[in-house]
Amino acid sequence: MKGDVCQLCGAVGPDKRTLVMRYFYELTEVVPEMSGVDGGLPRYSLRTCKHCRALFLVMLGEWRSACLARRVVPKDHDGNDTFEDPEAAIPVRVLGTVVMMTEEQYDEYRRNA
Fold this sequence. Notes:
Distance between the termini: 29 Å
Number of helices: 2
Structural class: alpha+beta
C-alpha cells in the first residue's frame, strides 16, 4: 500500500503519519491492517490520516484513564479483579488474558465472536 493512503479509512493524500508499536502481543489480532515486522520483539506499523490518528489518541487517553481508575480495585498479578463470582466458572481467553464467565456471559460471547 502506498504511503499516501490511510490504511484504516482509505483517505488518500499527503501528510500521513506512521504509528509504530512494539508489544509482546499479536496486534494484528485486533488491527489486521497493521504490518508486522519480525526480528526480536515484534514491531507493527500503520499509516494513518490525521483524523484516524486523532481517534487513536482519544482512545489512548480513555485507556489510560480506565487503567488509572483501577488502581483502587483489588486484583491478582495479571490485573484481574480478585472479586470472585461463584457463577463465573468458565475460563475464556480474551485478548491474551483469562476471563471467568458465567454460562450466560459465555453464550453472549460466543454469539458475538
